[in-house]
Amino acid sequence: MVALVLSAISVFAAAALFVAGQMLLGTQLPLSLSAAGFGSAHISLVLLFYSLGFMLGSLMGPRLIGRVGHIRVFAAFAALICCCALLHGAFLDDLLWMVLRAISGFCGALLLIVLESWINAHATPQRRGRLMSLYMVNYYLAGAGGQLFIGVFDTGDARVFMLAAGLLVLSSVPLSLTSRPAPPMPASGRLAFRELFEASRISVFGAAAAGFAMASFYQLSPISVKQLGHDLDTVARYMALAVLASMVLQYPIGRLSDRLDRRRVILGISIAVGAASLLAATLGQLSLAMLFAGSMLFTATASSLYPACLARLNDRTGGRNPVAANASLLLCYGLGQCVGPLCSAAVMGLIGPAGLYVSIFLVLSAYAAYSLHRLRFADTAVIDQQPYLPMSADSTPVIVNVEPPPQSAQPQTQQQ
């Protein structure tokens, strides 16, 4: 286990710094906008530009990295996203922040592609599961750590943005100093939407529902907690525990989905997410402990929905091109990311903080009903069962490239 960690220590360090900075910034931005008097709907509109930039970066990133090289791309775009964080702290302008969020999303996608390509270079079939589990533990621990800084400073304190910028730019140091050669880029591409829809409708709608739920939570839950009258320290602890809970059930659910009909597992996940949302929307509004419990149960289950849907899609396509399958399914997830916060913010405007979880409950209940309906169909053949892959909500298509590099191919080296 120690040797496994040491073999990818530079990637783990870079990922930890990047994720800590990104999640710190992602929580601080809606709090700052809310403190400046912007409504939930307007805040969601500003922040959805990150999702748009991320989708664009996921599609264009592999080609750009193939031309310039992993380390150069990482260093350049880490510096660019650092500048965006500093500009957020220097200017409070909603139109400017839309542009900055789009740029940040594009940069974030490229940085994750580089990190995940490096993970794949170490992920032989024999140790892929263990390495991915360690990567995800590192990812969520760093994200939770970043949340804790929220309670240290006041909402409008520019030092929060400076700290996030420092973490983001420092993430380029471990990879810039590594002596290991850069990995080759996997083949990219996308499945046609018709092919995607015919292969697994439950995966298409499940990815959109997962994007709806996760983006709504991360963008609006800091605001909802503040609207309930809690201080920044409570917001920090709330978000940190929610992030940590995201990794708790990924492995058990993955084991379960590899043994049972994945459609039934997906149905169970959607019911659990809906139940957690209902708990947070009702008892959570009356008791802080129940709000914490509901949010932790929510992220623990919701974070497993997209990986389960992706595994189901790969089952139905026989795992022929997992990168293309993930790239296409990520577009469905991204659509949910764009629509979710806008709808949830509208419901919050009507009924208050509970509207966040009410909107998620309604969407996941509808998806659960659809999943139950799909169980009636006999056309459920699995062409070639593929393993469940634990992954974060912001993973990029290259993370599912399970083919090890050819023995005869030499990894590309960086230009000096």
UniProtKB/TrEMBL annotation:
GO terms for cellular component: plasma membrane. The keyword Transmembrane helix applies. This is Major facilitator superfamily (MFS) profile domain-containing protein. SUPFAM superfamilies: MFS general substrate transporter. Pfam families: MFS_1 (PF07690). It comes from Hydrocarboniphaga effusa AP103. The keyword Endoplasmic reticulum does not apply. Keywords: Membrane, Transmembrane, Transmembrane helix. The chain crosses the membrane at residues 42-61, 73-92, 98-119, 131-153, 159-178, 199-220, 235-253, 265-283, 289-311, 323-348, 354-372. One of its GO terms (molecular function) is transmembrane transporter activity. InterPro entries: MFS (IPR011701), MFS_trans_sf (IPR036259), MFS_YcaD-like (IPR047200).
